[in-house]
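Reproducibility note. Readers wishing to regenerate the assembly model reported in the main text can use the exact inputs given here. Chain order matters: entities are listed in the order in which they were concatenated for prediction.
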Amino acid sequence: MNSPGDACGSGCGACGVPIGLPMRTLAILALAGVIALVDLQVRPFQAGIGGAGVVLPAGGAAPTADPASGPSPGAPVAGVSGPETEAPDGRTTLSLEQALALYNEGLAQFVDARAPDEFAAGRIPGAVRMSPEDFASGQVPEAVLSGALRRDSNVVVYCGGGACDASKLVARRLTELGYQNVAVFLGGWGAWSSAGLAAEEGAP
Amino acid sequence: MRTDPSNAPASRPAGPAAGDGFSHLRCRSQRLVRGYGLAAVRVAVGGLMVLGGYLKLGLPDVSVALGMGPLGVMRPDEFMAAIKKFHVPGLNGWAWGLEFAAVAVPWAEVVAGAMLALGLWPRAAALAVAGMMGVFAAGILSVLVRGIEDVSCTCFGSLKLICQGPLGACHVARNAAIAGLALLTVVLGPGRGALGRRG
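Running the prediction on these inputs yields the following structure tokens for the assembly.
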């Protein structure tokens, strides 16, 4: 069907829209849905962050609020091992007690995955800040580039606690960058601060 | 069999009387421009969709393999975290639904985008693309209206395409523009080079 005055007869494209268009559209989306279901079966949705896992000090350590007993950043892992928690999705996670034991023994470097203002308002002493956005478009955070976050040390990543995902995302990215012993402190800053443990604030 | 006018052979005159040299040439050029223009739009929009889906599926970064630096591939669980921040009613409390959405949305982009770029069921693929981009634009607009902060678009994984900075009007406009371009294929047809001209 040509519109009036359409000397070239370029035609009315819409007139050619097939009646089965909605069905075909739904078929395309259904095909994508089937592929997604297969993908979910083939690839575990949340693969572990990998690595050998964080080695905890034997027996752990009693909780303490003494800032003077802070960690020695970058301390290499000694040949001690302890209970390690593995979540159902394979990710290595730490409880408050386990994170505190690493802190007190100086066996881990802590990474704060929260926003800059939250980091400045209060953090685990010695923690470096690194959010998922710092890895956007293939960027590598300054703490990684400078070597401030050592690849051969235990790394414990935390965020606000509760349902926050930033720590898991940062942990995954760090593992991809070659960090072998990365764990997520699920309770995060919320559990740490609620327990009245050591904290520091202000610019790092 | 119905024929898409934009795909009609350029040498076949239609409309004006044969022998009218000037009109014939004008019509030929119009058809060529229209056919190739629609094809360019179709391939560009389809390619963008494939790129957007690929960057959210957590597949190996081909850009790194080619030595061109990382594109910013996002993993499904990272995309799921981004979806959660949109606070879609009823979705955040449904773990399987979230996981499925985080994988199905990128696959829908890849499948519809590839079919559009190749011209397989081009109108249906274009309608799927327009629908998805329209929903995404509406979702972003909803986030802006509700005043939800700290939300990333993640439309193209970690890649910031066209729109930089926090989620805003630019993202709505970009997605709406892509939806509009896809609708061109729905209404005017796939243009030249489509593998399948029906649907």
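We highlight two features of this model. The helical segments of chain B are 21-54, 62-65, 76-84, 95-118, 122-146, 169-188. The mean pLDDT of chain B is 83.
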